Amino acid sequence: MNRRVVITGTGLVTPLGTGVEKSWEGLVAGKNAIGAITRFDCSQYETRIAGEVKDFAGEEWVDRRELRRLDPCQHFGLAASEMAMRESGLVVTEENCERIGCIVGSGIGGLASLEEAIQRLRDKGPSRISPFFMTQMLINLAPGNISIKYGIKGPNWSPVSACATGAHAIGEAMRLIRYGECDAAIAGSTEAPISPLGIAGFNAMKAMCTDRNDTPAVASRPFDRDRSGFIPAEGAGIVVLESLEHAQRRGAKIIAELIGYGSCSDAYHVSAPEPEGVGAARCIRRALEDARVAPDQVGYINAHGTSTPLNDVNETQGIKRIFGAHAQKLAISSSKSMIGHLLGAAGSVETIITALALSRGVMPPTINYETPDPECDLDYVPNVAREAKFDIAMSNSFGFGGANAVLVLKRFGG
How many whole angstroms separate alpha carbon 68 and alpha carbon 14? Predict the structure, then answer.
């Protein structure tokens, strides 16, 4: 069995706003969402800026009694899943609940809850730890709580692969549907890493931007010669996937078709990518083979594009390895230039952006692209969104530990 898989619902929580349209409108406008960290006193930190979600009201999406029992990571995931389910119109019933899956991951999980529990343990002792602490922290409670909310009784689990998590979640959910184990699935990822420990940890790795704390609007600058590190961000991206037959049978609106998925490992280093784009190229090739499309059929790539010196050169090299001369004709953009790096949630958020770009015929820009880098010499849709009709698009995700995932999407035409 090799069923076609389509996207019928989307949900976004990003630093540009809570909701798909708020995020999309900001992306198309080239709006910056990076600003000073407000969650805690970060005056002693090397990085003092991030992509915070400023308009999120948890009580609109989560029962008030449950709010304090859940971590912000779970709040974001529940909100994005609610949006996706509303848009799709999918209803879970006793008849279909075992044929619906829920594959939602996170790179870190309930980090804020972990920090709070450690502080409480030190200050007040073990008897004062919340009985909800463990379920706040565990990554698989993101899909667990979503499944409980809707009564989903099919496969339920969480991939954890750093910055490739979201793409892996959607790709694995696609496989469940493609091969007949499920008819539909909620899939994606969520992340809430903006906490004292999270920022300190990435600073210690020397991975984040530290030289533009006073100019956050231009701090994230993928592929630009003067990039200096990524900007951390939070949020969630969730999709509803269905087999084409299932979606058409119930008259669902189809946003885009998911046609290819590639996954592989660099097996090289815990944080640095395999040199010369070899790992990225391997994953792109696997995704294109799975999609059964030639490289010259791809019109747009939503890049991983982290704004780090290593990633952007490596990803450019990987694209060139696979696409050859066609690489010069490709439009490529990095959404992280506007919203920062959502870590485990990046891949699912960017997959949704790619699906919207296909269905709406608009490529979001890479903002802050001012000084070309000789090693990054492709078309990165600089600074201004571009209207264009294209049929095939790709979303790249590459994570720490050499985890790579690439998704290929197609504009749906029946």
Answer: 21
> Which pair of structure tokens corresponds to residue 301?
């790539």
pTM over 0.90: yes
Residue pair 208/31 in contact (Cβ under 8 Å)? The answer is no
Q: Per-residue pLDDT tens for 136-154?
A: 999 999 999 999 999 999 9
Task: Determine contact, residues 366/330, Cβ cutoff 8 Å.
Answer: no
Max CA separation in the chain (angstroms): 64
What does the pLDDT average to over 13-25?
98
DSSP string, 75-113: HHHHHHHHHHHHHHT----TTTGGGEEEEEE-SS-SHHH
- Token output for 348: 């699912």
Strands 300-302 and 331-333: parallel
- Crossing angle of helices 72-88 and 141-150, in 10° steps, is 40
Treating both helix axes as pointing N-terminal to C-terminal, what angle do 278-291 and 309-323 enclose, rounded to 10 degrees? 50
Q: Give the mean model confidence (pLDDT) for residues 267-283.
A: 95
| DSSP state letter for 379 | B
* CB-CB contact of 12 with 23 (8 Å): yes
User: Do 109 and 345 touch, CB atoms closer than 8 A?
Assistant: no
- The per-residue pLDDT for 128 is 95
Which residues participate in catalysis according to the annotation? 163, 304, 341
Q: How far is CA 166 from CA 95, 129, 170, 235, in A?
A: 29, 31, 6, 12
